[in-house]
Every structure is written in structure tokens, then in C-alpha cells.
Amino acid sequence: MLAGQLTKMAEQRGDLRVRHCLVTGGARSGKSAYAEKLVISSGRRPTYIATGQAFDGEMEERIVHHKVQRGDLWDTVEEPLELVRVLKTHASSDRAILVDCLTLWLSNLMHAERDWTVELERLQAVLSSLPCPVVFVGNEVGMGIVPENAMARAFRDEAGRLNQRIADLCHFVMFVAAGQPLQLKPAVFPEISL
Fold first, then answer.
1. Degrees, nearest 5: CA angle 134-139-143
2. Where do the structural domains in the chain lie, given as residue ranges?
3. Can you give the pLDDT at residue 50?
4. HEC states along the chain?
5. Which one of the listed residues 66, 90, 111, 171 is annotated catalytic?
6. What is the pLDDT at residue 5?
7. Structure pTM?
8. CA atoms within 13 A on the CB side of 125
9. Is 169 exposed, middle or buried (0-12, 13-18, 19+ CB in 10 A)?
10. Backbone phi and psi for residue 100, each to the nearest 5 degrees, phi listed first
């Protein structure tokens, strides 16, 4: 139903291209669950690209929990850095791909001392040619308190920039809070001009 609603909106605008979506929100907002439902409701073969890495026991438990929760319905690919390569390898017209999450991908790239803007340019170059929809999940980290240290502030700033760039590339952007999705793009209301 969710994917059908977004597809219907696009078709009403005469847009028959493969459409991509960014789902963003805070921690434990329900954004991943919403994104999973969106991919499942597409009727395509669901493929989950997980960018998280188990650096400690707590993260390892989270990864196992998410795998069990998704079950066997999903094809799962774990890739912390080479997102573009994995998208190109697994994209096919019968699939819908979920990338969860962009924020961890950014963290992994920064930890590996790779220039995320170069990786984003690579992603931008391939995204429009993919034969299937991609749903990206990203954390909205800039709505809380200002981080105490410079490294955390830099990460917050880069995560905000990444979300903006991905939102520009996507046909749809959804914000999830308390498990409730709010459509940001295309705008539900006309732009305001003063």
C-alpha cells in the first residue's frame, strides 16, 4: 500500500521512472520499520544492504536481532564501505533495495579516512541508471543538542549534508517520528512565498 501510494502520486505527475526514497528520522523513530514496509509493499524481491559493522557486543546483538526480525524473506548483503559496488551488483528490475543506513555508511567511510563526497559522487552517477527502486534510511542527527567535542560536531554536520544530498537525488523523502511517517518530498503543500 505504501509503495502503491507513492507510485500513484508519481504516475499522476506523469513520472514513470524508477523512483528512490529517503526515509529519515531520529534514533528509534520507526524509520527502518517504515522503510522495510515500503520495500515489501513494492511487490518486488526485497534486498537489504546493511552498512553496520559489529565493533562491539552490543552492535553484534543489534545486527543479529535485525536479521532474525527480517527473516528469510529478504536477501541480505552486509557491506560497510562499497555501497556503489553492491548496488550495481544486486540491482535488477525484479528487486527493491533497502540501504540501512546512510549514517553508518558515513561513519564507516570517515573511520576508514575515505572522502565521503567522492563516494557520494559515485553513488549519484549510478543511482539514475539502476533498474530498481532504492530506499535509503538515514538518521536525522542535527535536531538534538550540540555535541560537546569537535569530532562529534563534524560528524553531525557531515551527516546533515549527506542527508541533504541524498534527498536531492530521491523522488520521495519521508520523515518518521514516533512511528508516524510525514511526507517531505514532494511537498504536500505549495511552497510559501512572502
1. 140
2. 18-185
3. 94
4. CHHHHHHHHHHHCCCCCCCCEEEEECCCCCHHHHHHHHHHCCCCEEEEEECCCCCCHHHHHHHHHHHHHHHHHCEEEECCCCHHHHHHHHCCCCEEEEEECHHHHHHHHHHCCCCHHHHHHHHHHHHCCCCCCEEEEEECCCCCCCCCCHHHHHHHHHHHHHHHHHHHHCCEEEEEECCEEEEEECCCCCCCCC
5. 66
6. 58
7. 0.86
8. 9
9. middle
10. -135, 105
Q: For residue 101, say if its preceding peptide bond is cis, omega within 30 degrees of 0.
A: yes
Which pLDDT score, from 0 to 100, does residue 189 have? 74
Extract the C-alpha cell encoding 102.
546512510
- pLDDT for 61 equals 82
Is 20 labeled as catalytic in the residue annotation? no
pLDDT < 70 positions in the chain: 1-18, 54
For 18-185, CATH gives: 3.40.50.300
pLDDT of residue 71: 78
For 134, list phi and psi in degrees, rounded to 5. Answer: -125, 130
